[in-house]
């Protein structure tokens, strides 16, 4: 954690920091934001110059993290396909803030447990006063 605080981070680093996303995931997200329109996995793969299966895995990681949304488009003659678009940045930021708050609360609890545990052990091992 101290290393993270010392590093120069850009806002896109939050994708990696909060969700463990990879460089390709960032590229896919930036592509979807940059195009301004929903794209299929094949279109995304073309934009990031990767195989369809590789692009699909990045899309799945972004979906799981909540950074993009999937929509179904129906053909008039039957059948459908999916397109992907970025989630509203305010919603993503709210989710990251919630994650940070939850993490902060958990770390506070663990620090308190650490203090309680080792303060008690230190008191028990101290020699009696007046000897």
Give an overview of the whole structure:
The protein is mostly helical. It folds into two domains: 1-87, Winged helix-like DNA-binding domain superfamily/Winged helix DNA-binding domain (Arc Repressor Mutant, subunit A), CATH 1.10.10.10; 88-125. It contains six helices and two strands. It has helices at residues 2-6, 13-19, 23-35, 41-48, 52-65, 89-125; strands at 68-74, 80-86. Strand 1 and strand 2 (80-86) form a beta hairpin. Helix 3 packs across helix 4 (41-48). The longest helix is centred in the C-terminal third of the chain and has 37 residues, at 89-125. The mean pLDDT is 85.
CATH class of the largest domain: Mainly Alpha
The total tally of domains equals: 2
What CATH architecture label of the largest domain applies? Orthogonal Bundle
Distance between the termini: 43 Å
Radius of gyration based on Cα positions = 23 Å
CATH superfamily of the largest domain: Winged helix-like DNA-binding domain superfamily/Winged helix DNA-binding domain
Which fold name corresponds to the CATH topology of the largest domain?
A: Arc Repressor Mutant, subunit A
Total strand segments: 2
Q: Please identify the structural class as seen in this structure.
A: mainly alpha
Strand content: 5-15%
Helix content: 55-70%
> Could you report the average pLDDT, rounded to the nearest whole number?
85
Low-confidence sequence ranges: none
Q: Strands of the largest sheet, in order across it?
A: 1-2
Task: Tell me, briefly, the overall form.
Answer: elongated
Q: Major β-sheet, in short?
A: 2 strands, antiparallel
Compute the number of helices: 6
């Amino acid at each position: 954690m101290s290393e993270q605080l010392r590093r120069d981070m850009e806002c896109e680093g939050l994708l990696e920091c909060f969700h463990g996303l990879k460089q390709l995931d960032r590229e896919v997200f930036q592509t979807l934001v940059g195009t301004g329109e929903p794209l299929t996995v094949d279109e995304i793969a073309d934009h990031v110059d990767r195989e369809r299966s590789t692009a699909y895995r990045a899309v799945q990681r972004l979906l799981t993290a909540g950074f993009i949304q999937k929509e179904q488009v129906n053909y008039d003659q039957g059948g459908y396909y999916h397109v992907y678009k970025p989630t509203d940045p305010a919603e993503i930021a709210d989710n990251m803030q919630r994650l940070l708050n939850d993490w902060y609360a958990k770390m506070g609890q663990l620090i308190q447990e650490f203090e309680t545990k080792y303060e008690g052990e230190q008191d028990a091992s101290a020699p009696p006063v007046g000897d």
